[in-house]
Structures are given as C-alpha cells and as structure tokens.
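#struct-pred

JT: dropping the chains for the assembly here, can someone run the whole complex?
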Amino acid sequence: PKETSVFSLVQPSGTMHLGNYLGALSCWGDLCRIKQHETQDLLFGLADLHAITVPQPQGKEFMKQKYDTLAYLIAFGVDPAKCKLYMQSDVREHAELAWYLSTITNISSLSRMTQWKAKSAGEKNKATDFSNSSSSLGLFSYPVLQAADVLIFKSEYVPVGEDQVQHLELTREIAEKFNKQFNCDVFKIPKVLLTPTKKIYNLKNSEKKMSKSDPRPGAVLYLSESNEDIRKKIKKATTDSITDKAFRFDPKERPGISNFINILAGIEKKSINEVEVDLENLRSHSDFKQYVGDKLIDWIEEPREKYLELSSNPDYLIQVALEGKIHAQKKAQETLRQVREVMGF
Ligand code: ADP
Ligand code: NA
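RK: done, full complex below.
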C-alpha cells in the first residue's frame, strides 16, 4: 500500500471556467505531477451526491454533465495515470456512512456552517429557524456527507480551498467523536492541505469572484472558449485608466490589472513578482491586454483541444470512472466493515 493518501472531490457542474481551474483543478494537476505520486494514493472525483443539494439537470442530461466535468479534469491536468478518478454516487458506501455519522453530529454544529448560512440565504430566518425553511435536509447535512467521503478512505490530506476549511474541521470533530464513542481508532484524523488558491475575479466587476452563475456577458472566461472569444473578453474587460505607471500587482488600486496578473501567475506557474518583471516593458493597456491574450491562448490551446477530444470519447471516460470506482469501492467497503463491526451491525 502507498504511504499517504490524498483525497478531494469537486462538484460536477459541467461548464468550467478559469476560476475553477486556478482555484481547484490546477492544484490536483500539480499533485499528479510531483514525484511523490509514487508513494501517494491520489483519489479525486466528482461530488454528484453533493451537487444534487441544489437543482441539477436530470437523467441523461445530468449524466452528460458529469462526464463533461470529468473530461475537463483530465484535459486540464488531472492525469488518470497518476491518480484515480471516480464518481461519488458509484460508491454507495458514502451514503451509508453519512447516515451513521449523522447520528453523532449535532444540529447546532451544522447550523454554524457558513456555507449553509450562505446557501440557505434569501430565506427569511435563514440558517437557524427551521420552521419555515424551504432548504432541503440534504443541503443542511451536506457537511456530514463530506465527512463520510473523507473518512471512508482514511484520507490523510484533503486539498481544499479556504472556504472548505470549516467543513474539514467538522470532519475532524466527527472522526474524533466516533473513535471516542465507539472506543476504537477506525477513523484517521485528516489534515487540510490548504490549496494555494488564486481567487479569480469577474472580468466585468472586480469586486465579485468569477462564477458561472454570473449572467453578465463577458464576465467569465470558460475553459472551452475559442481564441477569438478569449481576445474579445479580455479586450472588453474592466481595468482602469491609470497610464503613468508600470503594470504592478495592486489589488486595491488596480483590481482589474491585478486580476490578470494573478491569472498569468497561475497559468504560467510563476510568482507575482516574476510576472511583474515580464510586464515591465509594456506601456499601454492595449499592449497589456494583447500580452494577456497571447499567454492565455498559448496556455489553453492544448488542454482545450484535449477536452474537445475527450468529450467526444465517452467510452474512455466511462473506463476511467469504472477503474476509479473499483479502487474507491474496495477501500470504502473495508472501512465500512470496521464501522459496522464497532457499531454492532
Ligand atoms: P462557480 O462559482 O462557478 O459555481 P463552484 O462553486 O462550482 O464554481 O466551484 C468549484 C471549485 O472552483 C471550488 O473549488 C471553488 O473554490 C473554485 N472556484 C470557483 N470560482 C472560483 C474563482 N473565481 N476563483 C478561484 N476559485 C474558484
Ligand atoms: Na458556486
């Protein structure tokens, strides 16, 4: 068996954008590339059971959306030769363990979760008064399923962004509580591997993050975008009118420019400083935007091509997900056997 295990899931939302890449995918890709993958068990997948806590397409359409996300993952660097990729719903043990864990999780802990507060927002007495809540039970117990995901593989490291740290903390609490209550050490206490995420902002409004739910045209750069559209969006992106200064990273004074510098650093795997040096000789905003467009197109062409190729090859994607399922299921079944034994099932 390999020495350490790393585990993470992403929701299969289909269309992916630059924010998704720089905030999540690129980190998984890096983990695949670093040499330790030989001693690391890398398991990644699509959190389709989590995705349905908010409305999703159904039937074949949802299935297509999931395989589409898988194609993005692989094309943009999550290499199935170095890691396993699976669909959460293929491993039914997740749902079973989530039930067991829900019986030792306090409602008060769950109602403290900021994601719950945010996603149930818009409701009158969001988060704490349930008598009129129209949120689903699944949205509320989301972190319990997440705990089950992580714990069932005895994962040691869980790469997540800042926004998921609170859920991971709850996972650790649940694991400790279970081990104590059933006087066992079935669960390993997982550690957060805080991903060096770059928060990418909306191209039209640098106060908002880039998100597929933004309806403004030109606000989001998708990973399947054509060269022409990339150029257009960059050209129309909101920057500033400061003309007497070099292009430096200054999120407060120059959010639009800084967002692009951040994007360049992310795709080129350079430091902000190195990017600033690259930009030293650029004078005008149009030169700057031309430069950003060149770099983005240079970077995206190969993975975008691969994405298009993969998304028209369902047999391959099905094979990847099947191999992932077999691997994940084996581990999950063994942990669940131990859980059931200590609980008395
Ligand atoms: P969206 O906001 O487009 O719906 P999701 O919420 O599905 O994106 O996020 C999927 C993953 O991508 C998460 O890990 C999230 O942290 C990351 N992510 C999403 N948008 C951004 C962004 N603008 N900058 C950095 N990371 C992001
Ligand atoms: Na979102």
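JT: nice. The radius of gyration is 22 Å. The first strand starts at residue 4 and ends at 10.
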